[in-house]
User: Which sequence fits this backbone?
């Protein structure tokens, strides 16, 4: 069978979404075989649609090359715990582990193939929580769906990087891979190209539910409104401790939100990180807090200014156990300029 015929057969297929990954053509042909046997499979769960044509003894890779390359990196990718995830094709990959109500943030890099220009109708990233029944393969039931617009319609001529953030994501269920179904969380990057076919890339990550009835803490502080040179005073009480805590930090985070609706863009910065404890606490123990704000460049809190943007501040308590699982307790605070009366 000629390669040209293979390409015609392949191009005749219905392929709604063109994945970023290389579509692989693997082939085999016996000595007395006159016509190729064709096996076409659609794997919606993998990061690419896979096309398999059995025609010769050599692998022909890259018959259909992507228009660009997409890569996703997480903000704390090097520090975050990585766990193995078995893909549908049997291959095991390492993916980052998240807890519910964590921020999922990072950067998406898109690089067109050398000498090519990618025209598009917009670029977006989605955070999806999905359930797939294997007897109904290809149909996903989304129980979590968040979207961020990365770019307006235009063209890509060279490598471009887009920051993204999904704040305090509610992920109610733990990742599960079973015999008849799977529950997964993915980041889905889509480059819309109209008649040319959208370019789609998937990035898996794992979610683990915190252990209930094992950790109960109370975070007490003297007030919720502080001026820029103020001091945060408070205490942390450990009411129930059934897990081995390794360390505990207090962070000041600034969250900047711009736009509205599906065009909302959120960026979170960690302005300060203060170690409160190194070692395992016991039930009934209390940890004092004294955090000076003057060393940090804090602006006043801005709430929905002209329906265009907001700037908010949070105290974020982070506890890490011996298995590097993280537990969070977050509280919003108001920052005002000294001399200005804080708004109610």
Assistant:
């Amino acid at each position: 069978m000629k390669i040209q015929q293979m390409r015609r057969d392949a191009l005749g297929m219905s392929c709604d979404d063109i994945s970023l990954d290389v579509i692989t053509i693997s082939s085999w042909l016996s000595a007395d075989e006159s016509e190729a046997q064709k096996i076409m499979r659609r794997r919606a769960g993998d990061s690419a649609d896979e096309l398999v044509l059995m025609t010769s003894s050599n692998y022909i890779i890259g018959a259909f090359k992507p228009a660009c390359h997409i890569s996703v990196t997480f903000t704390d990718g090097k520090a975050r715990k990585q766990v193995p995830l078995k893909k549908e094709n049997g291959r095991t990959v390492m993916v980052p582990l998240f807890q519910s109500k964590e921020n999922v943030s990072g950067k998406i890099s898109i690089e067109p193939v050398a000498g090519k220009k990618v025209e598009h109708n917009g670029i977006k990233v989605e955070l999806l929580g999905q359930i797939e029944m294997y007897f109904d393969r290809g149909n996903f039931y989304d129980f979590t769906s968040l979207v961020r617009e990365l770019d307006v319609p235009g063209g890509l001529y060279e490598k471009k990087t887009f920051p993204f953030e999904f704040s305090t994501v509610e992920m109610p269920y733990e990742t599960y891979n079973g015999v008849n179904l799977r529950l997964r969380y993915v980041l889905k990057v889509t480059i819309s190209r109209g008649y040319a076919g959208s370019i789609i890339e998937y990035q898996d990550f794992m979610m683990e539910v915190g252990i209930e009835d094992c950790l109960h803490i109370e975070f007490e502080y003297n007030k919720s409104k502080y001026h820029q040179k103020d001091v945060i005073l408070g205490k942390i009480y450990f009411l129930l401790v059934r897990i081995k805590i390794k360390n505990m930090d207090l962070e000041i985070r600034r969250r900047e939100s711009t736009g509205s609706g599906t065009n909302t863009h959120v960026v979170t910065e960690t302005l300060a990180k203060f170690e409160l404890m190194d070692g395992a606490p016991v039930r009934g123990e209390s940890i004092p807090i004294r955090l000076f704000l003057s060393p940090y460049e804090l602006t006043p809190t801005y709430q929905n200014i002209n329906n265009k943007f907001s700037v908010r501040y949070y105290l974020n308590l982070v506890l890490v156990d011996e298995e590097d699982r993280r537990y969070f307790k977050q509280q919003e605070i108001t920052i005002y300029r000294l001399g200005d009366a804080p708004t109610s």
Observations:
- The longest strand covers residues 245-258.
- The chain has one helix and 26 strands.
